[in-house]
Amino acid sequence: MAVPSIMSQDTQLSWIREVTAAFPFHSFEAFHETAVRELIGRHGSLLEDDIRCVEPIAFRLPGGVAFTYRQTEGVVSIERGEDSAVAVIELDEETFSDFANELLTASGAVMTQRARLVRGTLDQWQRWEPGLRALYTGRPIYGSEIHSKLVDAEGAPLDLARSFSLDDSDEEMAAYLNTTGYLHVRGALGHDEIARLAEEVEFCRSRTKPDDGLSWWSINGAGDEVVTRINYLDRFSRPIAEFSFDERLTRLARLVEPEMRVCDDRLDGPMVFIKNANVVTGNGDLGWHVDDGIGGHPVMCPLIQVGVQLDDANPANGQLLVLAGSHRYACHWPEWGEEGGLPVVPLETRAGDVTVHYGDVLHTTPAPTSDDAGRRVLYYKFAEPKTFEWVPPGCHYNDALFNADDTGRMAARATIRSDDEADHPGYA
Question: Domains, the chain, ranges and CATH?
Answer without folding.
Answer: 6-137 (3.30.1050.10), 145-427 (2.60.120.620)
